[in-house]
Amino acid sequence: MTAGTYPSPEPVEDPEALRADEAAYRDLADAVRELLDLTVRTRVDQPERAAVATEVRALSARLSARAQDGPLGLETTSDGRLRDHGNPMVGMRNPVAPPLTVRQTGEGEAAADPFVLGAAYEGPPGHVHGGIIASVLDQVLGTVPAIVGRPGMTAYLNLTYRRPTPLGQVSGRARVAGTDGWKTTVTGELLDADGQVTVEAEGLFVVPRWARQYLGTPTGDAGDFEAPAEAGPDA
Ligand SMILES: CCCCCCCCCCCC(=O)SCCNC(=O)CCNC(=O)[C@H](O)C(C)(C)COP(=O)(O)OP(=O)(O)OC[C@H]1O[C@@H](n2cnc3c(N)ncnc32)[C@H](O)[C@@H]1OP(=O)(O)O
């Protein structure tokens, strides 16, 4: 396993051109997401479905004219940002992503703004699939260690499904519950459209050994690091 960080194959020196380029990727993902939703819900007749399938295959052939062999990894752009555009929860280029927007809401806290989980995410009739909920909460909780400077892999994610989550608008929130060296414990919740907590989560996020040299020596206080060149005590 590597850090999975690559220079973007499409360096853009002009910030406006970069924004336009990204907007076009986002628009394509939005359009395909709409297609996904309607593929689940359509009731058009069989010949029409067959005709649409032929057209969709033709569109895929156009995109394959120039496509990356493997996944996107974590790209660094020419203006110095990190892009995780393939991420299935937040990725700008991924139509599987609802998508979530996770932002910092306070010190050691993050929240996913209200977003919609529709028919493509159904588990129990009319309700959100439990595995999708786990993915959402993994992302929301996993953002917290990153914002306190200790981005980690999920070591465990414990979920308590308190009540079924209706399809439709949901949101999430999370915060640091404890830190211990390279380990950050995070708690969080998924909320339905009425603001009721439907699922509670606790996760442990660990900075992998291979990544510790990039983060410096951890202390007991979140976000408090020595010089980044210094490797951790057991790196
Ligand atoms: C732009 C950025 C975007 C940032 C936003 C990113 C959000 C992304 C959210 C999605 C995140 C994912 O899905 S991540 C993908 C799913 N997760 C994975 O695939 C992880 C697979 N597991 C691993 O790679 C590894 O087991 C690690 C990294 C978790 C730990 O391995 P390691 O690095 O070798 O370290 P190791 O010595 O084993 O463990 C370190 C310490 O953690 C403890 N520890 C390890 N695992 C556990 C565990 N399950 N339960 C309790 N404790 C544990 C150990 O006892 C030890 O404690 P002590 O002795 O030091 O006290």
TrEMBL record:
CDD domains: PaaI_thioesterase (cd03443). Residues 126-197 form the Thioesterase domain. Pfam families: 4HBT (PF03061). The keyword Ribonucleoprotein does not apply. Its EC number is 3.1.2.2. One of its GO terms (cellular component) is cytoplasm. It catalyses: tetradecanoyl-CoA + H2O = tetradecanoate + CoA + H(+); decanoyl-CoA + H2O = decanoate + CoA + H(+); (5Z,8Z,11Z,14Z)-eicosatetraenoyl-CoA + H2O = (5Z,8Z,11Z,14Z)-eicosatetraenoate + CoA + H(+); (9Z)-octadecenoyl-CoA + H2O = (9Z)-octadecenoate + CoA + H(+). Keywords: Apoptosis, Cell membrane, Cell projection, Cytoplasm, Fatty acid metabolism, Hydrolase, Lipid metabolism, Membrane, Transit peptide. GO terms for biological process: fatty acid metabolic process. Residues 70-95 are annotated as: Disordered. It is a peripheral membrane protein. One of its GO terms (molecular function) is hydrolase activity. It is found in: Cell projection, Ruffle membrane; Cytoplasm; Membrane. Belongs to the THEM4/THEM5 thioesterase family. This is Acyl-coenzyme A thioesterase THEM4. It comes from Janibacter alkaliphilus. The lineage of its organism: Bacteria, Bacillati, Actinomycetota, Actinomycetes, Micrococcales.
